[in-house]
Amino acid sequence: MRHWLYLIIVVLVLQNPCWAVPPVITNIFPSGGQIGSTVLVNLNGTFPEWPPKIVVYSPDIKIEFKEKNKASIIIDPKASPGPKLFRVFNKDGTSAPKAFWVGTIPEIEEVEPNNTYLKPQSVGAGPVLINGKFGVAGDTDSFAVEAKKGQTIVAHLLGNHGIESPMDAAMQILSPDGFILAENHDRFGLDPFIAFIAPNDGAYRIRVFAFPSTPDTTIRFSGADTYIYRLTITTGPYIDHAFPLSLQTGKPQSLQLKGWNLSKEFAAITMNASPTLNETRIFKTGAAGNLSVLCTSYPSLMFPIDKHSMLLESPCIISGCLDVKKDHSFELRFKKGDKYKLKIDARSIGSDLDPLVVQKDALGKELKRVDDEGAASRDASVEVTSTGEPTFLKISDLHNHGGETYYYRMSVIPINPDFEFSVDGESFAPKDNKPVEVPIKFSRVAGHSADIIFKAQDLPQGWSAEELIVTAKTVSPVKLLIKPDGKAIAGLFKVTGKSGDVLKTGIRNLPFLESTLDDYYLLTEFKENKEIKKKN
User: Fold this and answer.
1) What is d(CA 322, CA 395) in angstroms, rounded to the nearest whole number?
2) How many other C-beta atoms are found inside a 10 Å radius of the C-beta of residue 51?
3) Which residues contact 183 (CB under 8 A, 6 or more apart)?
4) CA-to-CA distance for 5 and 13, rounded, in angstroms?
5) Could you give the 3-state DSSP secondary structure of residue 460?
6) Share above pLDDT 70 across residues of the chain, in percent, rounded to a whole number
7) pLDDT tens sequence across 462-499
8) Average pLDDT for residues 205-231, to the nearest whole number?
């Protein structure tokens, strides 16, 4: 009798629509591929239906589902490198977005056993990108790279950042006979990076291992099916960043690639960025590494290497590096009453610099000292209101360090009346046949007081929404109401805010995936099974 009762409960649970199961993507393996290739991947996670519905956010890749938990990802031969986001969804919800990384160099998979430096997986001189996994607790992976005396070995592991693997990886370079020559733990967030000059000819070992990203009580190397990584190894060209660190749109501009094993001729490039771009990826055939560069309508300038100070009188983007000098100074001569925001990006663009900004008046009196923008950022920004008299700004490293990897990008932007907004949440569902409430947080800058009109755009079938008008007296946050009818279906939508001629779309920043998204998800309401509720 008890077995029959269990069976009835299982059947009722499966029939009860309260038990909605949205799809979940835990990870993708391999988590990337070379431009122009087709990669068979495992999609690990929970998929109530197969194949699931999918949204791909880049035309650079196409995804074709195969048997359960498998898919082919076709990378366009003209694709740009970097993260390509996608998600899967059903009527019950959507997965979190995941990134498939498109690379520029040949890719292989890790081959076990390679746990010790005595039995490494050989990768030649590179360049090569290895898709690997620390599959079990205690796992370590070793790779042998051939290098000549004086060559620079560059190794970079992408794991916690970009793939969201729940690990804190470490890397070592060993001599052919097993002595540790270099090691690194957290160069990019929790991911390691090493550039090492080979003292002799030989097959050097790259050894990698990991700890959990959330520390626990275990005292050993960690591992799991989710500990996935992408390891780049090369003795050839590797691109780290470029100077200047921004491109002025609509005109040809010369850039100098920076990194390792780059000849002067190889490193010199010219680009003409379209005015429609906010950023663009820079890469070169035959080189490992690539980078995203800011595109702007403002002049893109570089701090003069032969001077200690630079005059600033108008909006611009400044690129600088604290390699020769440990600090850079600026004289600010703006019109009286003008307001500017000076934003210094460093850690957020891959630099080792932890910027410290000090502002002084003409007599040397300190006016402001700024380190971090907030708890979540180690970059800095300062707002300046001109009195008509010159003031002076100095940028240095908080710990007084310097070198080729201590670079920064300073945006000198006028503060004009404007507004900003964000949507609080990602998925929304109606309750008790009431409209969906989408919370919107907004703020005004520099005395902005005009009306802001918020709208829900590109709604799925069966949904409607009236515009929400926010006046100067309205207090943030507000709620945008979206109403379903009897035939509403789940799907994606966007939120826009308009004031005067300025139109903005609600954006979610995904820094770990080096991306942004501008869509949100609507769920349909699920009716409770009242018969089961009565019996309980």
Assistant:
1) 9
2) 15
3) 170, 171, 172, 173, 194
4) 12
5) coil
6) 94
7) 999 999 999 999 999 999 999 998 889 999 999 999 99
8) 93
CB-count burial class (<10 Å; 0-12, 13-18, 19+) for 45:
middle
What would the two tokens of residue 29 be? 């393996």
Average pLDDT over residues 328-347: 95
Entry field: residues in the chain: 536
What is the Cα Rg of the chain in Å?
Answer: 27
Closest to 35 (Cα-Cα) out of 257, 266, 217, 288:
288
> What is the distance between the terminal CA atoms of the chain, rounded to a whole angstrom?
19
- Rounded Cα distance, 64 and 58, in Å: 14
**CB 298, CB 248: distance < 8 Å:** yes
The C-alpha atoms of residue 518 and residue 507 are separated, in whole angstroms, by: 5
- pTM to 2 decimal places: 0.89
Q: Which helix (H) or strand (E) holds 13?
A: helix 2-15
Structure tokens at 404: 């080729």
| Token reading at 213 | 């990203």
Q: Which two tokens stand for residue 223?
A: 């591992």
Taking alpha carbons only, the member of 391, 443, 440, 446 closest to residue 419 is 443
| Alpha carbon separation from 86 to 95, 96, 109, 384, 517 (Å, rounded) | 9, 9, 22, 41, 10
- Contact in structure between 72 and 54 (CB atoms under 8 Å): no
b/e string for 77-86 if b means 16 or more Cβ within 10 A?
eebbbbbbbb
Contact 9, 31 (CB under 8 A): no
Give the span between the Cα atoms of 190 and 406, in whole angstroms.
Answer: 18
> What's phi and psi for 512, nearest 5 deg?
-70, -20
Residue 417 and residue 446 in contact, taking contact as beta carbons nearer than 8 Å: yes
The label of the residue with tokens 């699920």 reads 526
Contact 356, 321 (CB under 8 A): no
Distance CA 478, CA 504 (A): 17
With a CB cutoff of 8 Å and minimum separation 6, the contacts of 253 are 244, 247, 270, 271, 272, 273, 300
Do 477 and 440 form a contact (C-beta atoms < 8 A)? yes
At 358, list the tokens: 């000090």
One-letter identity of residue 327? D
Task: Please list the helix, strand and coil fractions of the chain in percent, rounded to the nearest 5, in that order.
Answer: 5, 50, 45
